[in-house]
Amino acid sequence: MKTYPAEPFKIKVVEPCKTMTREERLEVCKKAGYNTFLINSEDTYIDLLTDSGTTAMSDKQWAGMMIGDEAYAGSKNFLHLQEIGREYYGFKHIVPTHQGRGAENLLSRLMIKPGDYVPGNMYFTTTRYHQEANGAAFRDIIIDEAHDSQKDLPFKGNIDLNKLQALIDEVGAEKIPYICLAVTVNLAGGQPVSMANMRAVKELAHKNGIKVFFDATRCVENAYFIKAREEGYANVLVKDILKEMMSYADGCTMSGKKDCLVNIGGFLCMNDDDMYTRARELVVVYEGMPSYGGLAGRDMEAMAIGITESVDEGYIEHRIKQVEYFGDKLIAAGVPVVQPIGGHAVFLDAKLFLPHIPQEKFPAQSLAAHLYIESGVRSMERGIISAGRNIETGENHKPKLELVRLTIPRRVYTYAHMDIVADACIKLYKDRGKIKGLKFTYEPPMLRFFNARFDIAD
């Protein structure tokens, strides 16, 4: 029998969860235009919208915030963050930003010229937006199996080296400023990348004079999967696996709101001295001084401590296994989910869940809305709405994966909460024939999933 580790922490502070009637939730959802992003958190029972910034910080992190040095320049907390960043990630330079998309903005502005191509292992919404806004075209070079939710492979986040070589042959290496390698791959279901694949990508990229930058947002989760699934790493510490992973990149963007275990913050890392000089100049324009980058000193201190806690073997095992426990319950009940279960979330396959709703009527968006109506559980769409439109043709991108993401905040919920959410998903699956599609009543011009509004389709 499979076992799951108990929580490796004690609960010191509690926050009440609000319960509402179905009729009340239906009214809330209608007012929010059937968009879970527009529902207030106080109207949510179990909030699985995102794992970004929703972490429960530790007593040591809260204590660390009391020694925040709020100096405008040269904060001692920045120096601590720099020291920890070098120790655990291995990069020479670190530029703090207010969150991950701040780092994405800096990287895109520093590296991209109009007409460039940025290949990556599946797009992410804000990442692709910054790349396209600076004149690049994104190319998906993830392995084909990543687009099949039912394909069970240990490293579905891997880059297809043949696809990468084909792009180099097609456009020329000079048109590819860097490869964006996500570890793990969010929109593939939180799927990891193998160490062997990272090593091979770096070798091919550097042979052609192309840099490799990681989206390192969930890099510790990726390191755990390498320990659990890749030959030769079972007895290696997660922190050492993480350090080796980073050695195959020229730098990274980081949203500290995930694996750094904080509520706000991020950074851009690199080894190149010239790039660092330019990044220091650019961060002043968009974020703040190079030694705070839009963050308070106390936030940088919490992030430095969070980095050290994130590689604790007991913490990361429980983190991954709690998500796996939730996913296993759904699989056992026949609910279609992305397999294998990823690191930060369980993804419902809305195409298989609601086969009677065509993708043009937004099945994932509708499924997320109806899960909230029936249970008070808030999730989010990761399908055609998130994919957006082609900037040249205006046509909807139609990803093969039409998913609802149930994202587990770190150190927040217990196994009992996972039972409640699983039961809600199973009940909704049994009644799935009653769910109808949606139509736009308001469509924002960019990153539409945040603010779009919908109504029940005819």
UniProtKB/TrEMBL annotation:
One of its GO terms (molecular function) is tyrosine phenol-lyase activity. Signal peptide: none annotated. The modification N6-(pyridoxal phosphate)lysine is found at residue 258. Keywords: Lyase, Pyridoxal phosphate. It catalyses: L-tyrosine + H2O = phenol + pyruvate + NH4(+). The keyword Cell inner membrane does not apply. Residues 47-423 form the Aromatic amino acid beta-eliminating lyase/threonine aldolase domain. It comes from the Bacteria. InterPro entries: ArAA_b-elim_lyase/Thr_aldolase (IPR001597), Beta-eliminating_lyase (IPR011166), PyrdxlP-dep_Trfase (IPR015424), PyrdxlP-dep_Trfase_major (IPR015421), PyrdxlP-dep_Trfase_small (IPR015422), Tryptophanase_CS (IPR018176), Tyr_phenol_ly (IPR013441). Its cofactor is pyridoxal 5'-phosphate. It is an enzyme of class 4 (lyase). SUPFAM superfamilies: PLP-dependent transferases. Its EC number is 4.1.99.2. Belongs to the beta-eliminating lyase family. HAMAP family: Tyr_phenol_lyase. Homotetramer. This is Tyrosine phenol-lyase. The lineage of its organism: Bacteria, Bacillati, Bacillota, Clostridia, Lutisporales. The gene is tpl.
